[in-house]
Write a structure and sequence with these properties.
The chain is mainly alpha-helical. It contains eleven helices and no strands.
Amino acid sequence: MVQLSQTELDVVIETVSERIKAVFSSDGSGHDIEHVMRVFRLSRKIAVAEKADLLLVSLAALLHDVGDYKLSGNGNENHRDSVNRLLAELELSRSTIESVIEIVENISFKGNETTDVQLSLEGQCVRDADRLDAMGAIGVARTFAYGAIHKRPMYNPLILPQQHNNFGEYKKNQGPTLNHFYEKLLLLKDRMGTETGKQEAKRRHDFLELYLKEFLSEWD
């Protein structure tokens, strides 16, 4: 890993941040620039606590959604080209860029019956932060925003949560938004990789359970 001075690190991060803002400026699905920056800040907080490489964590956090199928418009993924384009002309080693690509390509939740890809410590910091932003109060808001964009009903008690044995099944799922709590969000607490992530996940998980209890009570 190339060692950059603090000034050089700040310049790289600021440059990538500005490039990312242009990519996510018009998103309304909960994957906007504010989501990216929350993941960025939380990733760095986890990285400091876990003693991970701050440059790699910072870059991967800023780029973690580029090329994602949810945002591509055609349902396909192309992380490598997106990362290479957004890191172009920066003084970064090829090994650093490849490490970022490896994290970005493997960070996503692939289905409730799938096994998470083993990531480096830096990858775990970013994945934990991304998953934490899917939990808690903001996570609830993002979940319903995504469901609304895709014209999904909030809830239908006749449509039960599904098991997804592979990424293809998970991507095709069109169930009601509330099912997503059972298909993903409530599972994240036990899928954290870092001790720091596990501690924060417990608090946010408790909020999800409280929210669901209130939602179902009001629905009935």
